[in-house]
Structures are given as C-alpha cells and as structure tokens.
Specification:
The protein is mainly beta. Strands 2, 4, 5, 6, 9, 10 and 11 form a 7-stranded mixed β-sheet that branches. Strands 1-3-8-7 form a 4-stranded antiparallel β-sheet, with no helix packed on it. It is globular, with a radius of gyration of 14 Å. A hairpin with a 6-residue loop joins β4 and β5. The chain contains 1 helix and 11 strands.
C-alpha cells in the first residue's frame, strides 16, 4: 500500500521561502500523480499543486502560481514543494497526496494521503 510522509514544515517569516518534502513508499508503476493540498484553520482543504510523474506535467492553484515549484526526484521517491514569498495566507497544514493516474486525480482527487506538516508564517 502506498504510504506518504511529509516533512519540512515549521515556523517561517513573511516574505521568506520554504521547501516541503514528501517521501513515498509502496508505489507501483500505476501511481503516476502526486500533489499537495493544504488546510488552514477553520477552512476547507484546498488544492495547491500537482505533478504527473511521467512527463512532469504540472499544475498550480492560482494562490501559489508564479511563486511555487512542484517537483520530484529522478527515482520518483520524493516529491517537493518550494513556496516563495510566504504570507499569513500560506499558514496551513500541508498534505501530500498520490493517485494512480492523472485522470483519476482530476476526476476523483487523490487516493492516498500523508498525515500533513504544519507551516506557520509569522510577521
């Protein structure tokens, strides 16, 4: 079974940057999509970014477009999210997710989730 473990969260200052990591284990060749969602206090979980592992196609939410990069290592064992120019609006628990295909992700969301890593942006 696919397991995901996030890391890299913590306290960062406004205007700064961070990089989150997600280590995936138990994936198969059919696990072809990974991405990041976040949930701020009192708000619903929202999409941040996703990547198609084969081919590297990427999509970003409007809230982070232009200041974020989603990537994966060559072995497809670790996924990253780099987020620049942080503000209080970025404070949230960030969750790593994975799905079997890009189509499954777009139609049904992620099939597997990590437990999340907390990002707190201070001024």
């Amino acid at each position: 079974q696919v397991q995901l473990v996030e890391s890299g969260g913590g306290l960062v200052q406004a205007g700064g940057s961070l990089r989150l990591s997600c280590v995936v284990s138990g994936r198969t060749t059919s696990t072809d999509t990974m991405g990041w969602f976040r949930q701020a206090p009192g708000k619903e979980r929202e999409f941040v970014a996703a990547i198609k592992l084969t081919g590297g196609y990427r999509v970003y939410a409007d809230a982070v477009k232009g200041r974020s990069i989603i990537s994966a290592d060559n072995a497809m064992e670790t996924m990253y999210l780099r987020l620049n120019n942080l503000s209080a609006d970025d404070t949230a628990v960030y969750y790593c997710g994975a799905s079997g295909t890009w189509e499954i992700f777009r139609e049904n969301g992620m099939d597997y989730w990590g437990k999340g890593t907390l990002v707190t942006v201070s001024s």
